[in-house]
Amino acid sequence: MLTSLTRLLMLLMLTATVLILNSCGTTPPSKFYMLEPMASTAAMPASAGGKTAAHIGIGPVRFAGYLDTNRIVTRQEGTEIKLSETHRWAESLNDNFARILAQNLSILMATDKVSLYPSRNWSEIDYQILVNVWQLDASNKGKVTLVANWSIRDKDDAELLTMKKSAYSTNVESTASYNDIVRALSKTVESLSREIAEAVESVQAH
């Protein structure tokens, strides 16, 4: 009888110890984020020709390897990179970026003729916009940065019409929430979208 009671007490103590250890090691639930499009009221003034008739194709869009993760990346001191365990992208950052760029261009150029690569109507596009994103992150000091190389090609003969490297940065508080950081990143994508939209309209004008 004593032996059985002793075993029962030992089992209860072991169970309690396991529960305590598990509770101490519990990871906070993850939070998920997405880049957001610009406000529809932020469109550029209409050009003299009214709405653009050009069909714009976005892609391929390629990202630097260190951004190929669903964990939000921040820069630390020196060359250190931190990947958050609990703050994550709700989908592929590449896909999210490409879609937001397409939405922004649709707003800026007042057109529904914007397609993402690949699409069934890709053969119908007039201009192809290729983007290589080299940096899209925030530093631990509150600097949010987007660096991208992009080009516009004529789809018919693949002629390179323009190519440029663009860099945008803005500042948030060093104690800013991840929600604030993602909104700031969205603003840098808006700035890039404006530059590309202006370049497309310039190409059309010639």
Mean pLDDT: 87
- End-to-end gap: 97 Å
- Could you describe the largest sheet, including whether it forms a barrel? 8 strands, mixed
Task: Write out the CATH superfamily name.
Answer: ABC-type transport auxiliary lipoprotein component
CATH fold naming: Rossmann fold
Quick one: overall form?
elongated
Count of domains: 1
The percent range for helix content is 25-40%
Q: What is the CATH top level name?
A: Alpha Beta
Structural class estimated from helices and strands: alpha/beta
Low-confidence stretches: none
The oligomeric state is single chain
Number of helices: 3
The ordered H/E elements are HEEEEHEEEEH
DSSP E strands, number = 8
Strand fraction equals: 25-35%
Rg, rounded, reads 24 Å
Going by CATH, the architecture would be 3-Layer(aba) Sandwich
Protein model, in words:
- The chain is of the alpha/beta class and 206 residues long.
- It has helices at residues 2-24, 93-108, 178-205; strands at 31-33, 56-63, 71-75, 81-89, 114-116, 127-139, 143-154, 160-171.
- It has one domain: ABC-type transport auxiliary lipoprotein component (Rossmann fold), CATH 3.40.50.
- It contains three helices and eight strands; from the N terminus they run αββββαββββα.
- Strands 1, 2, 3, 4, 5, 6, 7 and 8 form an eight-stranded mixed beta sheet that branches.
- The longest helix is centred in the C-terminal third of the chain and has 28 residues, at 178-205.
- The relative contact order is 0.17.
